[in-house]
Amino acid sequence: MENQNGGDLNAENTSPLASCENLGGAPAVTPENRVVEAPSQSPKKSQPAAWLRSFQQHSASVLPGLILLAVAIALNWQLFTIPWVERGDLAVNALQVQNALHFRELLGNYSRWHFHHPGPFFFYLFAAGEAVFFRFLHIVPAPLNGEYLAEMIFSTSSLFLAIHLASIHVREKLFQPLAVLFSVIFIEVVNAAIPSSALASLWPPYMAAFCFLLMMVCCASIAAGHWKHLPILAFAAMVMVHSHVAQMLFVTVLCSASLGVTLIREFRHGRLPAMLRSHRRYLVASLAIVAVFLFPMVLEVAIHHPSNFDRILEYLHAHHGEHNSWRVSLLYLVSFFTYNTTPDTVLANPAARFRDLLNPAPFVASYWTAFLAAAWAALIAVALAKRGIALFVRYLLVEVAVVTLLFLYWSRRITGPMYTFNGYFFFVVQLLALFAIAACIANSIPWKLGPRLALALACGFAALSVLIDGLKIAEPSAPEVKRALHANTVELVIPMTTAMEIPGWGVASYLQRDRISFCLSPDWEFVFGPNHVCTPENENRRYTVQFSDNPTVCQKPCSVIYQEPQLYVTGTPPVFGSIPALIRASEPSHLQSGFNGIDRNGAWSEETGIIRFYLGAADRHADSHVLQTLGIGLPGRRAYVSFNGFALGLINRPARSIQTFSVPGSSIVWDGPNTVAFKVPDAGPVGNDYRKLGYFVEELLLQDKDSKAVVRPVSETLADRLVPGVTWQADGGWVPDGFFPGIGRLATGGMWGSWNHNDALTGRLTSRLFAPDPAGCVVVPVGHGPSVINQRMTVTAESGKLVADLPLHNDAGGWKLFEVHYDPTVGRIRINGEDEGTGWGQWLAAGDPRSCGN
Fold this sequence. Notes:
6-stranded antiparallel β-sheet, 19% strand, alpha+beta, 21 helices, elongated, 9-stranded antiparallel β-sheet
């Protein structure tokens, strides 16, 4: 349309309004006569602060993460009210955490294969948690509580940082809510299978899983060209190297592939030099991070000989060529998808099949139904959208395949049982696959979310974690821990004063916090380190230590060594036994080194098992003695027995038997420790028991060589027929029922003792002579307190000749029945009890004798 002057209404610099004015005769508006009005001065909107803008940009990742962390902390509100005491592995780790508090720790957590994992990152993380939350802010009541908070923050941060980095490549807002939802579902499933493992555990195999996820996401991001994430990759990768010696395989392959892909791509396009220059600060930062993580590992190699690295190489050399079959390795891998948590038991059967690994729990079927439904939805969405799969998502899927193949290869090299905890980190590969599914759905469906709705959904899905019962930390309260420690024993030493033995590992960390050093047998060096190994100089100063919630139970010579509210660690000086001495391997205080721990009524030695006990010089009776051993040998495994280094002989019977050896009087140490060693050069696994098994020790009996009787313990249920007509004559402090009530009563017969609300009573108890059993056997019940110093129970003939000296030994005390086999030609016999001890726990008791057998 043209006006009268031939002007185009749509011509440049002409508006419809100007044309209308021209139609009315007004002058036309031209560039020369156009009046340009000044823009209106509307007030500028104030720009938010930089931190606020950053928070707004990352809120879809930050807020859901904070909500999940808050829920996890709320579910474990006891962290702020109940002090938790370390036990087991956590107690050992706490010792390294204390080293980290003073920047002295160079090693990772210990391995059961007698080396440490490469680096101490997690110990410095826990030290930071203890320092900040316990020592500085005082918001938790114990160091362990602060360590739990640090781990929960670290794992949650790793998870949501991985989600955030992935969201940079997946621009659609739907991705973040889906990723949060899938993460909550994944955590629920893993914790349903292994309670309190994901986000809520300090056990080393569990605590690095989400950092492994972060490393995989970073690798995909770098491969897709996002070099700004290189420092994060360096950090996550080095954390994994510190966490486990096997992670070097996964870190090396994944990081090399990721960097290689992007370097080759840039080189082909001729952009490599420019790219390196433009990103040099990220390269320098990454190298600095790697150097910081390498420093403690290099320093440890430089100052320790042999180093931890030498021990790792020694382990690899010792197990070179050992491998599992591809079939077993594949079944082990499958167990992480079926959530079978006992593959070690299942795969011990050579005929194990896939169906043996199926977990019938409903949550497993529900989880995989939802997983496959989401995968099908992603495939359909991608097919309908006809956009293909984004480069970053393709790298995620490739990583799922690569890590699975690496895990299968590594499974072949696992030594020992195929425990789930060995490969716990592999679970997160499923979450990585779920991230890829979420990305495909978000990129392909036409429905797009606004940022506010996406944030609301992500926060709502994070809040669903309140339903995850497995987020509750499986750690008992302090009193429960103390009760659990009562039955265990380890050896400790207080410097410059005494040595001691205390139940459990948990108190060791508290002793070190109070600067009370301690030591253990050389067997535990790989756990506690060389600085905590006992030396021979401490042998004569060993204390027996007990737990109590009441200090009044500790009377002289007992003393309180360490105390906390409702916890007293009390120590008693070494108590020395007498001849005859009965030593039970089931009493942990006797197992000095080289044993696999208590197993029913004894203990299996390893290649060299050493038992220790003390003898007092005042109880010396003869210059020559005999040692009887009761135990079980294995076919083809000879056990060489020595006493204080003096060779006694050989046990070569593959069955339960009693062996007798002569012990020269000159080899016995009086007023000091004596050791009996069992050396089995061919010790090793038996069947599915992967421990080193040598000789099973039950009891040792050291007695005078002139003693013709054979004395052995017997159960009261096997000796309940009283010898008729036996009466007693008592003097001094001996009275009927004179024993500490806590040991209980015998089922039948009368009882006499020298305890009458006082340990200091002394005296003598003698039975009337009674006729011997035709077979030469009698059962004598004996009761005593924790200390048997200056106490003796004997069987003598009418002539006064000693028939048997019953073995009394310092232990928890109580009733014991001894079956005495003797020569019946000695005539009538009597039982004699002598108590000359006036110290704490020194009392003696006897019961009416019984016939042997029911």
